[in-house]
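Worked Example 4.2. Consider the chain below.
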Amino acid sequence: MSEWIEVKAELSASPLDWSPWDEIFEEHGIAGTVQTDKPPTLSGYLSPDALSNLEPLIQALESAGAINVTHSQVPEVDWSEAWKQFFVPRRIGNHFMVVPSWSEFDPQPGDITITLDPGQAFGTGDHPTTRGCLELLERAGAQGKEVADIGCGSGILAVGAALIGAKHLDCVDTDPLCIRSTTENFARNNVTGNTFLGAGFDPLPSEQTYDLVLSNIISAALIGISHEAARRVRPGGIWIISGIIESNWPDVLAKATACGFTLIDHIHEGDWIAARLTR
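Applying the procedure from the previous section yields the following structure tokens:
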């Protein structure tokens, strides 16, 4: 069996945006990476026919600021399938159950089951940012509401909103793979909604406003869309935000407050903050 090489880069702190690190891996032949927060690391796998990229990759990671780069041999496996063993049914909040599409699950009375295959998109419910959003969505409710999901990833939040009664869904992401994943997960859950490729609120009809907006994206992006979010969220409406590293929370909250939002509550898990705001 051929040997693959796992390359792991340890960083001094979690970056606001992991994408530059992802790009280094991708430029050296690794299309998918695995991120951990404690300690902050990013790892990926070089195939046997791309081993000549190993030393240039290590040098590039060290030049970008990685404090430690290690590599080790691992047996060849089907990585597109192997990760699925770690994605198991998970309860989030009081009622949401996030269940892999390939898993058998017997729902209990009161369960709201989100059937999911994230593909290459972010959002399985295993990360604190996604869990925080779903818990706050459960608190906020969505019955009869018009909802936008900015940075929809796998579509997990939009599906959750639909399953608790949202009447209209608009979902936006910059990544075509996320748009595809969201569309597929809509079908798995018998949900209907609109998907838009682009950044922030830009692809949406200019005068469309919402009762509820969901945004699980990085802190800098939340700060960047705060003014537009204030225009898009109807008076008395809700903006649920996540993807916020604890150290960035004061800046995110200050910007949202300056744009007319008031904090209702927030969830703090590990180094991450999710919050529910109104205006």
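The radius of gyration is 19 Å. The first helix runs from residue 19 to 27. Compare this with Example 4.1 before moving on.
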